[in-house]
Write a structure and sequence with these properties.
With 511 residues, the protein is of the alpha+beta class. It is 41% helix and 16% strand. Strand 4 and strand 5 form a beta hairpin. The radius of gyration is 33 Å and the shape is elongated.
Length: 511
């Protein structure tokens, strides 16, 4: 969330520069999409999204991985960060160093949050102590003797506090300013912004976003007052700002203080304020709308884009697997004339992305679609729409239309359920050359089945009559890797004996 919002902050900063002469209400509005991304853990996908960074760059399993990786969508960043991430030593039984780093990081993160919240609470308590003895002027407006600047405090029932020594004219300006804050729900926005700052305190860009949000909030409020009272009061209003400047920086969620934020910029903005041209207003409004449209949503995942754009001419092969099913209806190889029917189903793909779908019991209908570029895509209905590793909540009405789909033949024994490939003798010889350095990763590319009971044992099918079994403990070096011949029922340890000799002897015995 912090990484995603950081990329949006850069765009908002650029937009503020391009529209610096536009009313500040527009730049103030732009920040709302930043805080939405900082605080909301979920989003929606849209074809209009231009988010340059992958919305889910870090897997929840990263800290448990032997080789942790991130995928921001920016290759240069991924390469640099992945190179620095700690890797578990081969055969090590110690705790993953990435997990240790994550635990330390979590402690530091929570400590930072606690410090900011404690500072906020202390600031509010000290302020409330100064408000003892405040006198109601009228409605929700109070006068206090021991405050230097007016402010709004409170969430559901906001109250305006004014210094007692103000003149009637000054009081009228300030009351209008603070009421404008309340009308615009700025007291709520500041609490939201402070909550985001507490959660993302480690990110310097969030501090910049928080500071500029409050600055734009105050300038927007100043401009609203000038617009209501007329340009003639600009000098008086600027003098009032200067006289009430406290020089304090309050980062707590409340209060909103009249003379607190970047006084030089505010006075300059008030004195230079002119009613903007219509084209400036329209351009700024378009910029705000564009930022909301392209950054509030995530880009559609590549799997969904592939499904919606699939064409018959892109396909070289389609296979269907229905499980569980009668043996003679588990599999079907489609003729080219039937491709269009499958493509019509695939093109109707829809649904919100599910990062952590629940496990559903029941049948599954899966199309294995091989495209002309040689890539084999997995397109399945298992209660969710499943496309190349991504799950989507597609809606029961559409998914239920798949229920009559059937195969017309038994499932081939050599059928692969993923994009793995079968291990060959030549590839096994290359692996064997590593000797004692052989690891589980050397077999990760190949299709295998876990047949162990108590011990981790992987079975890898090969060209008949051979197969391989690798056993041991995950995370450590394999205890053995044996090549078997189904015909002779003999085997060898590929780490110690010659594969070529074993094949020759097996062929001789077979003759």
């Amino acid at each position: 969330m912090s990484l995603t919002a950081s990329s949006i902050i850069f765009f908002v900063l650029l937009a503020r520069l391009l529209f610096k002469r536009a009313p500040k209400v527009f730049s103030y509005a732009m920040w709302s999409v930043v805080f939405f991304r900082l605080l909301c853990p979920i989003s929606f996908e849209s074809m209009f999204s231009l988010l340059p960074i992958n919305a889910s760059p870090i897997s929840t399993n990263t800290v448990y991985s032997e080789k942790p990786q991130i995928s921001t969508g920016i290759t240069s960043i991924d390469n640099e960060i992945n190179y620095l991430l700690p890797v578990t030593a081969n055969g090590a039984s110690d705790v993953n160093p990435m997990l240790i780093a994550a635990i330390i990081g979590e402690i530091l993160w929570l400590t930072g949050i606690a410090i900011l919240l404690a500072y906020s609470i202390v600031s509010i308590l000290r302020l409330r102590k100064k408000l003892v003895g405040a006198v109601r002027l009228y409605d929700n407006i109070f006068l206090a003797d021991h405050i230097a600047s007016p402010f709004v405090i409170g969430l559901f029932r906001p109250v305006i506090y004014l210094p007692s020594a103000l003149s009637e004219q000054e009081r009228s300006y300030i009351i209008l300013h603070e009421k404008t804050h309340i009308r615009h729900f700025d007291h709520v926005m500041k609490i939201i912004a402070f909550a985001a700052l507490c959660l993302h305190w480690f990110n310097p860009l969030v501090w910049i976003a928080f500071t500029l949000t409050i600055k734009d909030m105050e300038m927007s409020c100043d401009e609203s007052v000038i617009k209501q009272l007329g340009a003639d009061i600009r000098e008086e209003y600027s003098a009032l700002l200067l006289s009430l400047a406290t020089g304090r920086k309050i980062i707590a969620g409340t209060p909103l203080s009249f003379g607190e934020e970047d006084m030089k910029s505010r006075i300059k903005n008030v004195l230079c304020y002119r009613k903007p041209a219509l084209w400036v207003m329209l351009a700024a409004l378009a910029a705000v709308a564009a930022i909301f449209i392209v950054f509030a949503s995530n880009p559609q995942r590549t799997s969904m884009e592939w499904a919606k754009r699939l064409r018959v001419e892109d396909i070289s092969k389609i296979e269907l697997v229905v499980m569980p099913s009668d043996k003679d209806e588990q599999y079907r190889l489609f003729a080219h004339s039937e491709f269009s029917d499958v493509v019509a189903v695939v093109n109707k793909s829809r649904g919100g992305y599910l990062p952590n779908p629940e496990s559903l019991a029941g049948s599954g209908v899966t199309y294995y679609i091989t495209t002309t570029d040689g890539v084999r895509h997995i397109f399945s209905n298992n209660g969710y729409l499943f496309i190349d590793g991504d799950s989507y909540a597609a809606g029961r009405d559409w998914l239920s239309s798949w229920e009559d789909v059937k195969g017309n033949s038994p499932l081939p024994e050599t059928f692969l359920f993923g994009n793995e490939r079968f291990l060959t003798l030549d590839e096994l010889k290359l692996i064997a050359k590593k000797g004692d350095a052989v690891s589980w990763d050397d077999f990760a590319l190949y299709y295998g089945q876990d047949i162990g009971f108590g011990l981790y044992i992987m079975h890898y099918s090969m060209e008949e009559p051979y197969y391989v079994r690798v056993g041991g403990v995950p995370g450590e070096s394999p205890m053995y890797a044996r090549l078997y011949s189904a015909e002779t029922e003999k085997s060898i340890d590929i780490l110690q004996e010659s594969i070529d000799d074993f094949v020759k002897n097996s062929e001789a015995e077979g003759l």
